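INTERNAL AUDIT FORM
Audit reference: QA-55
Scope: verify that the stored structure record matches its stored sequence.
Auditor: D.O.
Record contents follow.
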Amino acid sequence: MITSADEALLRRAIAVAAHAVTLGDAPYGSLLAAPDGTVLIEAHNTVRRDDDITAHPELKLARWAARELTPDAASRTTLYTSCQPCGMCAGALVRSGLGRVVFAISTEQLVELNPQSGAWPTIPHDGPALLPEARAPLDAYYLS
């Protein structure tokens, strides 16, 4: 359930996205908030500026949280973001241990606004293969 406090922080994430546009960056912004609503960090998309396909704000904040917060502290935070995290970012958010995500625009809504946003090709996957060989370094790491 989204509260009025969530809406206020979500509006701030949208403002970060709007500011990104004035800097020539893509219109995506995010912030990470503590349980009391204190903003811990905010970021916007810098994919073009940094020539880095991973420079999404959600991924930047997930990395920051994993590096700077204890697992307990991370689990009590909320990420507010102007657009629903993509698959890459969603995976990073799970791995970083954040507690919750609140977004303004869904992926489906984004694709309606900008059809090119949903034009990602699929990549064929083959496997699994060579289990005994692939398992050796895993066993050496996890079973030592």
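Auditor finding: record pair retrieved intact. The chain has seven helices and four strands.
Action required: none
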